[in-house]
Amino acid sequence: MTPDVVVDVGNSRIKWGWCRDGRVAEMAAFVHDDPVGWKRQLPLWNLTPSARWAVAGVVPAEVRRLCDWLSSRGFEPQLITNELFFDDDWDEELDGPRSLGFVTRVDEPARIGTDRLLNALAARDRAPDTCSAVALSVGTAITLDFVEPDGTHVGGAILPGPRLMAKSLRDYTAKLPEIAINPVLPTAVWGANTEDAIALGIANAVLGAADQMIWDWAARCAKPPWVFATGGDVGYFRGFVFTADLGGFVIDPHLTLDGIRLAARALP
Fold it and tell me: So where's the catalytic machinery, residue-wise (predicted)?
């Protein structure tokens, strides 16, 4: 399948991507359950019922809601599920994982977030053939996923995103406030007040965790890995210099959507 529209249903919002010339050319973002916004977007991209939709997401109820809405308007959305990624023994004629050049080897592949697999697939597709790839997503949660040069996804790490960190400090302490998140690379060495101290701590928790894990991964790689980053709060990494030697570092807001576009190749 070659999709015209790819959809990522995330924890905080829904993103549509309009595909043209083998890439995600435009993106639109919506809150959950926004049929008015969805309806307004259709004519902007000249979408008719013949358009091919590929949908993936980590919030099952919102995925169903969107697919039901699309079906009610004459579209036939197809779902991207984990099963596309964890059996590399499929018959070649069925366009299984071998045709994607990617397969996951985690212990429980049915439980891993589909967004993590899609990010890892897109990262592997972008990296040079002889280099490993790391997909870094900074959103509600922060995830890192590691892919060998042969397309084997070995696993990764999950930690709270910056907004969850801020909310947890407010919810589980007596006096600390919940701060607004401004995802930029910090320049201060210390915070002179409570709010600045929290902001600096969160920023360095995000940067330090990712830097350490990418260092550990790079130390076992024959060639410097490539890192591809995405997510609403990825701005922390603009201008950041990783400790590890990297083949390259790319921030791509379309990474998950492009993973959906690539995965759709395995659909009939």
Answer: 115 (proton acceptor)
**115 flagged as catalytic:** yes
Residues that constitute the known binding site: 8-15, 113-116, 140, 194
Residue ranges covered by each domain of the chain: 5-79, 113-252
* Amino acid 44: pLDDT: 97
For the beta sheet containing 23-30, the strands, ordered from the edge strand earlier in sequence to the opposite edge, are 23-30, 14-20, 5-9, 53-57, 78-79
Q: Which of 4, 87, 107, 115 is catalytic?
A: 115
Specify binding-site residues for substrate.
Answer: 113-116, 194
- The model's pTM is 0.93
Give the tens place of pLDDT for each residue, 146-159. 999 999 999 999 99
Helix-, strand-, coil-residue percentages of the chain, each rounded to 5: 35, 20, 40
Domain 5-79 annotated CATH 3.40.50.2300: no
**CATH superfamily of domain region 113-252:** ATPase, nucleotide binding domain (3.30.420.40)
Residue 54 has pLDDT above 80, yes or no: yes
Q: Which of 136, 128, 197, 139 is nearest to 169 (CA)?
A: 197
Three-state secondary structure call for residue 147: strand
Report the 10 Å Cβ neighbour count for 95: 16
Single-letter amino acid code for the residue at 50:
S
Place of tokens 């959305």: 77
Binding-site residues for ATP: 8-15, 140
